[in-house]
Design a protein that fits this description.
Layout lengths: L1 E6 L8 H9 L6 E5 L12 E7 L6 E7 L9 H12 L3 E4 L7 E5 L5 E7 L9 E5 L10 E2 L14 H6 L6 H21 L10 H12 L1 H6 L6 H17 L1 E3 L3 H7 L12 E3 L10
Amino acid sequence: MTYNLITTGQELPARLAPLLADVFGVSLADVDVSEESDFDSRNWDAEVTCEYSAVHGDLNWSVSIYATDVVQRRPSEEALALKVAQWFGVAVLFPATQTVPNIWRVATPQGRLTHARVTEPESESEGLTVNAVEERVPEFPRATVTKFREIIKELQLPSEFTDSLLPEGISEDRREVRSLLVNWERLTVRMATGWPPSAWYPASLYAEDLELRDQVAGAIEQLPEDERQSAREALEQIDQKYRELTVEDGGENLSTAADVPITDRAWYWYRRPLNPPWDTTGK
């Protein structure tokens, strides 16, 4: 298993070996920490290896750790990042999503997790820049505090109702219906689980989800008669879950937050989450 981290902190590599031995449950002799260009003095038989290189800018070290198959204790990348952050009192970045490569997760010395946007250098004289964070991180005092809308939909949430009634691999005719139902069901899952990944959801994106819900009934009607029932059953179950997780307010909260008119709309437009996860601007 491979772990890719970028950290702040001075002289970090020289102090890594004891921590890695502790985290992975191996002896210190079975850990090798080497600069990435050093091939002569490495312990090639080590069970846990760590390559590092110095980086410039807002971060100091790029670290790649590999645990061989014989290592029994292999934490998640998140758990390892938190351990390094708290052990050394540094900020540790690790990948958040492959499809948004400039957004990284951040483990802080206080044990918190947040996200950061990292800008790659445009020339060799420049370094890595952390130009935005979701919540303030003292190690990056110049970073703007903001939310990252682009990572929300990248989180693949479960869609059990839809999967059970319209499984993947269905016909082309049912694919549009499945996609719309998956999106609708994932909205209910977000509500039920505290709006991952950042406990926030813009009102404008919520309104987009409701606009997609508007299309579901029409899409179902385009299915062959013998295929409509399973889609309707899935929709009924998801609608019921949506009702359980929302309250009726006449659409006032969403209309104000997303700046959208809510007149002559379907019933779900007039309901809001129990604890709306957006700010007053809805952005």
